[in-house]
Amino acid sequence: MSELAEWFHPKRRTGQTRLLMLGAVVGALVVLTSSTLFSWPITGGLSATAADDPNVAFDAPDGSCLTWPNGSPDIKKVDCSANHLFEIAGTLDLTGKYPAGAPFPDGTLWQKIAKDNCGPVVSKYMNGKLDPSGKYSANALNPTNQQWSGGARTIRCGLEAAGPAGALQPTTGSAKTADQSPIYPVGTCLGIKDKAVSDPVPCTKEHAYEIVGIVDLKSQFPDGYPAEDKQQTALSARCVQAANDYTGNYDLTKNKLGLTWDNIKQDSWNLGSTKVNCKVGQKLDDGSGLQTITNSVKGVGGGAAATSTSTSSPPAGG
């Protein structure tokens, strides 16, 4: 792993579950990172028929994909080839553990229910091929307080992709066949909060680092998993080239920026996660966290490799 990598690689969510409570009429959203409760009045689905049936999203069959506009309560079932935020993996009935009269679980208990129950369901759905360090994690779609009081004890387990700070990221295609490498598209800037990596933001805003390239190590090591030292050697060359191509040969070090990447674990490699992000950023001089950067480095070097027509100024360290 490169010198800066420890500062840039978000803490993985291995063994954790983010709990998403989305009710058919009045639901609640709970994210493990904040345990903050929000009201979500659900209004309908894909058509007039769906809108007349507020349960359309909750009752969608396994393998269905759901989405909702940012900040909107309108949860819809969509084709998995389209952008979506949640993929249903299976259904569980909790009646045995929570019979009639059992109080509605609070946020902490819902988190435990999701963590204890959805991991195995999602693993089965993925045929045991869920990358513990990959971009997907388990989640749960649960009944509302009103539904619970009426006897509903069914939860829907599924998969999501979340940013470093927990915001759900849209994906396309089924998780069952998707590349699970935890990468972002080239040109993505990941935000910064309290000197740590946060969720994607426009590059004109303060951020921790910018994705300048994607390297698929499988092309260089087709015969099997490369040890970390081999990954280092390969990535130190390929990420430098990617950065030069992206920036137009911009001199990062003279502008108080650095280039970093992550290494791939063997269990991830065995599951097909062979891609790595090359990223630009910098840690603070005192080692207390990440430096704040604004603006993109795309094409700012003005070299022959630059293809951008961006008029953005070079990034400024904070």
What does this entry look like structurally?
- With 318 residues, the protein is an alpha+beta fold.
- It has 2 domains: 136 residues, no CATH class; 137 residues, no CATH class.
- 18% of the residues lie in helices and 23% in strands.
- It has a 5-stranded antiparallel sheet with strand order 4-3-5-7-6, covered by helices on one side. A 5-stranded antiparallel sheet has the order 9-8-10-12-11. A two-stranded antiparallel ribbon has the order 1-2.
- A hairpin with an 8-residue loop joins β3 and β4.
- The relative contact order is 0.15.
- The N terminus is likely disordered.
- It holds the Pfam family Septum_form.
- It comes from Kutzneria chonburiensis.
- This is Septum formation family protein.
- Keywords: Membrane, Transmembrane, Transmembrane helix.
Gyration radius (Cα, Å) is 22 Å
Question: What structural category characterises the helix and strand content?
Answer: alpha+beta
- Counted by DSSP, the helix tally is 6
The end-to-end distance, rounded to whole angstroms, is: 25 Å
The averaged pLDDT comes out at 80
Uncertain spans: 1-54, 303-314
Strand content is 15-25%
Q: What is the number of beta strands?
A: 14
Helices and strands, in order, run as: HEEHEEEHEHEEEEHEHEEE
User: What is the topology, as strand order, of the major beta sheet?
Assistant: 4-3-5-7-6
* Shape by Cα distribution: elongated
Helix content bin = 10-25%
Q: Please tell me the total number of domains.
A: 2
Biggest sheet architecture = 5 strands, antiparallel
Organism: Kutzneria chonburiensis
Domain Septum formation-related: 63-278
InterPro entries: Septum_form
Protein name: Septum formation family protein
